[in-house]
Amino acid sequence: MSEYRDETMMLKTPFHSRVEAANELNEWDGWSGYTTPVAYTDVELEYFAIRNSTGVFDLSPMTKYRISGPDAEAYLNRLVTRDVSKIKIDRVGYVIWCDDEGQMMDDGTLFHLGKNDYRLCSYTRVMDWMSWAAMGFDVRIVDETSEVAALAVQGPTSCACLSAMGLTGLEELKPFGIKRFTFADTELMVSRTGFTGDLGYELWIEPQHAEALWDQLFAAGKHYMIKPIGSSALDLARIETGFLQAGVDFVPAQDTVRIGRSRSPFELGLSWLVDFEKPVFNGRKALLKESVEGSSYRLVFLDVEGNKPAANSFILVGPEQVGTVTSAAWCPTAKSNFAFAQVEAKYAEVGRELIAEIYYQRELHWTRLLAKCTVVAAAPFNPPRRRQTPAPMC
Amino acid sequence: MTDYDVIVVGAGHNGLVCAAYLARAGRKVLVVEANQQPGGGAATREFADGFSVSACAHWLTHLNPEVKRDLALEHHGLTLAARDLDSIGLDPGGQHVTVKGDSVDGPSISTGDKAAYQEFHRMTLKFSSLLANAFKLRPPKLVAGNFSDRLNLARLGLGMKLMGKQDMSELLRLALINIYDVMEERFDNELLKATLSFDGVLGAHMGPRSPNTVFGYLYRRVGDVYGFNGPAVVRGGMGGVGAALVEAANSHQVVCRTGVAVQDIMLKADRARGVRLVGGEEITAKLVVSNADPKTTFNKLVGLPNVETGLARRVKNIRMQGGAAKLHLALDGLPEFKGLSAQQLGQRLVIAPTMNYIEEAFNPAKYGEYSTAPAMDISIPSLHDASLAPAGKHVLSAIVQFAPYALRAGWESEKDKFKSLVIARIAEYAPGLEQLVTASELLTPVDLEQEFHMYGGHWHHGEISLDQIMFMRPFPGATQYGTAVDGLYLCGAGTHPGGGVMGLSGRNAAREIIKRGNLA
Fold first, then answer.
1. Is A74 within 8 Å of B267 when comparing Cβ atoms?
2. Containing domain of residue A87, as a range?
3. Exposed end of chain A (fewer CB within 10 Å): N or C?
4. pLDDT by residue (tens digit) across B214-255?
């Protein structure tokens, strides 16, 4: 190869021309093979756009599987732990799926698009597992990641922005609902979903209309302080509202190498997503056993003393290490030093006091801090507008 | 209240053995069988007017003596028409090789080979005795810390140790290599090597150079430990085993319904609660035991959607492609084989002149084609049992390898061609055979699958190889005859210890069920 190559070999999302133009910092990261901005201008400003106006996140690299065919519902019911038949058409459900050992493989959102027609969005790429799970079912599974462009439009003015763009009646859409609009002679699907814990929507459209959608959205949102956001700001928002991130807060079971490093839904506080009323689903037997015998670990939310984020900290009880922090941040809106930690199950009750062993560096100087923290029941950020219908149009 | 304590799906020999043991222990047992004739692979088939033959297995080589005694099979009518037969490796020129128990003879056999065979026989019998010990017990689990499992594993280890340093290290060396290399190391005579090595690939999708073939050989030699000094012929054909087992089962009040196929195993949540017959009749039971092979059990009877994905994958990955066909000939008179006396005709005749011949017969099977020069294991049972053919007439039965289940061209168009080719091959050793043939049939693995409900037409319900034995049979993580579906057990040859008309899978399964108690 003699030719000099200055092009990245990463894939580009359908919004790339607009994302690139807006990315003043030129900071990029990889996400499932796509190049994706870490931040466009300033992480704090982007975060505050999510919380105070509207932040727009390009989520096109999100893995999307289209699952259809006569057995689609039955297939999904065996695949995921909750009862899929309860997710009505034009509704979205948060789902998790496990291996036979009842260990979490991933979580995702399941869009019920029509009778026996679903879209499953996930962090991991699991086509092999999905195909194995399809043995014995009349079902068609297509990876449509590159065939659907998607934007998350999140924040208190998001509904107003989108309405200004012409999506009338959107304010009536309930959380986890789906509404379809016509945009540039094609279908624009809008779901009231997101990863920020705030009022927000996700927009789904064919890739060739992506740039036009971006342009119209930003034109309409100009007076609502709309701002593109990168993955760092989103991460801050999702921690503040207590959303788990696969690969960060748990290792997808199929990626673990060492015994005991995967986690069950019970251990991650997701037991509400496990429905033992269903006859068979992957992990059922193991989870039933665990529900009787108890779990080894527990993911807890911690309110940490002080303002130093407890990133990667050990959690101590006396001198003994009983867990580790998986996600941590100073949460600006909640004004809380918040962390997720995996601790031994016996130390997980709400109100329990633990110690976070925090290390931080100032000008090459490392400091160790033993910060008191308390197990809390819920994440600190949970505004009413997240659920409010009709949605606020401020 | 359920209709029965236990329903056994399939009246194969293991299903009947299991049913009889369970009934003997006081369970109320029903056996349902799709075919009219019970016995499964131990069946006799009248393939032409007045001519009957063992339809699948044609020698009795493995029947476990404890099963025979416990179920009083002789009392219930099991009789051998002949036993301790020789295996004769046929030579096109008539210089045949005869394997007779621990000795080998023939005009071309050197004294060196004779001595080498005696030593080989001694050593392999020792290895097979070790296997026979493991066969009696449920397969130990490796992970769970069950005391009796640990003890059984320790016994197996101790058994190896007690063989002596030399034999133990030889076992460890041989177990994983192939029969071709072992034969090359020990013998000079090509025909002898081929005759012996054929035992390592019988019924398997393997050639002599395939790994696991030494194990296949040792597996077969377990019959020696059970008191068979060579193959035996059952009076009335192998169906005689099935018939005796039915009698034995009946004597313990087992209810046997034949000619009724099971549509599916009924489940309540993840527990088996009975069977639904084709036609809709539902019968309930506390436990269901499937004598069907694991693929048929999970693919068809339970349904893959009703088990978890990891299990479905393990079921899919069981290697279970039949590679052997059965040829049945009705003969107008006794055929003449070059250089064989009438007495010798009644022995087990092997067509496999060299190991390369077998390997070359196997090669096309890898690519979905049949052998143009197949290897064969031939029996003329009517010489020992006149009831099988009209007076003065005979039947010939041959196991033919290799005939792959998934024939690329499809068996429908190729079957007759293959049959003619096989008959012509035998006729090279028995000139004039074609003129004696009054009726003939060839059962390909596809036919065997349909006839005996064995997935892939594989006699052993799954390849007998080191990766599919003990706790890895039918698949890794299998739970000692139990399954992931509560109340559903397996008792067929797809479980430890495996195939061949041995009866231990059925017996071990019954013992495990009894041990776990009524509601296990």
1. no
2. 63-146
3. N
4. 999 999 999 999 999 999 999 999 999 999 999 999 999 999
